[in-house]
Design goal:
The strands form 5 sheets. Strands 1, 2, 3, 4, 5, 6, 7, 8, 18, 19 and 20 form an 11-stranded mixed beta sheet that branches. Strand 12 and strand 13 form a beta hairpin. This protein has a domain of about 140 residues. It is built from 4 helices and 24 strands. About 10% of the residues lie in helices and about 40% in strands. It is mainly beta.
């Protein structure tokens, strides 16, 4: 019995009472500047400027708009990056030279000026391959690469993805309200095929510095759970590979540990993040970011559902079809409200189903096919 009391006391002591912790740290109202991007010598260069936000971090990071952003070489070359949208600044091409070092200069509308250290221009070796492995619970997409000159050692990847998915049923008819009627649906008005897109949001890095050869093998880029609609029809991923300096890799490694830990007592404790960008107006102000320069390598891979044995995805719709009589009041009640969508003619009415079963846009995609989609 004594042991039972001790167990109860332990549960009460360690799990019975919880107090909300309020950090005593006070961050500035505008937050610190965050600089994300890569100076690219063989493709578009893009930097996104934003600001850190206060705890608990449940709001969007405010973009830094109206800034003057430029790339400078140690050979006195200067290239202006044009403002795009949401704090993004970029240029399609930069005539960079492999023997020149480059840095980033930023002047904000608030009068502050930021400057990065000069970064070595690093050529990036080609991506050997991008492929996938199907496991019982997920599909893992990975990359292979190597540098025969043993000069790279530090790598980073990012990716964009696009996938096609279909609705549960195809509609050949549509409702119009003036005059109230059901007419044929044009091909340009189809709502059966949809496309969605996404981009990498985590830090993906690897190093071969401790290996005898400069080779990265089967490095995972992302996991797709079995049954995900990304692979229900056709999926495309565009992978980009960057060569990093040791300093850039160490910075990203610390950022990765700080931002992707689970928050348990066994996690590595957060470390101070020091990049290579400095505020000239106020040298004591922290700046989040690390500017690197070099070439970028790219690889595109498609995965079709036919390549996957029995991929268990089905449009989330368990409703059965209904027949709506061709009566004005019925058409208004069912189709005019948007609750249901006609599929095809059925006797003196129309076979129909709930719109969320027929309109693929209900899951957030668009019916506009990407211009370079294969079919």
């Amino acid at each position: 019995m004594k042991s039972v009391y001790l167990i109860l006391f332990g549960l009460l002591a360690f799990g019975g009472c919880k107090d909300k912790y309020v950090s005593p740290y006070k961050s500035p109202n505008t937050g610190y500047l965050v600089v994300e991007g890569y100076i690219t010598g063989n493709g578009p260069t893009k930097f996104v400027l934003s600001h850190t936000i206060k705890l608990p971090g449940d709001s969007a990071s405010p973009p830094e708009k109206g800034a003057i952003v430029s790339v400078e070489g140690d050979n006195n070359s200067v290239f202006r990056l044009l403002e795009q949208a949401n704090g993004a600044y970029g240029i399609d091409t930069l005539p960079l030279n492999i023997g020149v070092k480059y840095r980033l200069r930023i002047k904000t509308t608030g009068g502050k000026e930021y400057l990065s250290d000069f970064a070595d221009y690093k050529p990036t070796p080609p991506i050997d391959s991008v492929n996938w492995i199907l496991h019982p619970d997920n599909l893992v997409i990975y990359a292979n690469t190597h540098d025969p000159a043993n000069a790279t050692k530090y790598y980073q990847w990012s990716y964009d993805e696009v996938w096609e998915y279909h609705a549960a049923e195809s509609s050949g008819l549509k409702y119009i309200d003036n005059p109230v009627s059901v007419v044929g649906r044009l091909q340009s008005e189809q709502i059966y095929r949809c496309w969605e897109s996404g981009s990498s949001t985590s830090i993906i890095i690897a190093s071969s510095a401790k290996l005898s050869q400069d080779e990265i093998y089967l490095h995972p880029l992302l996991n797709i759970p079995v049954g995900d609609r990304k692979l229900s029809v056709l999926y495309r991923i565009t992978v980009r590979q960057y060569a990093l300096t040791e300093g850039a890799y160490n910075f990203l490694s610390i950022m990765q540990k700080n931002t992707e830990s689970l928050g348990s007592i066994f996690d590595v404790q957060p470390s101070a993040v020091k990049g290579n960008i400095h505020c000239l107006s106020d040298p004591t102000e922290p700046v989040i970011g690390f500017v690197s320069a070099g070439t970028v390598r790219q690889e595109i891979m498609y995965i079709s559902r036919g390549q996957l044995p029995a991929w268990p995805y089905y449009f989330n719709c368990s409703d059965t079809d209904h027949v709506i009589p061709n009566i004005k009041d019925s058409l208004i009640a069912y189709f005019g409200s948007g609750a249901m969508t006609p599929l095809e003619e059925a006797g003196k009415g129309y076979q129909a189903n709930f719109t969320n079963c027929v309109d693929c846009r209900a899951l957030g995609g668009t019916t506009v096919m990407p211009a370079d989609w294969p079919y």
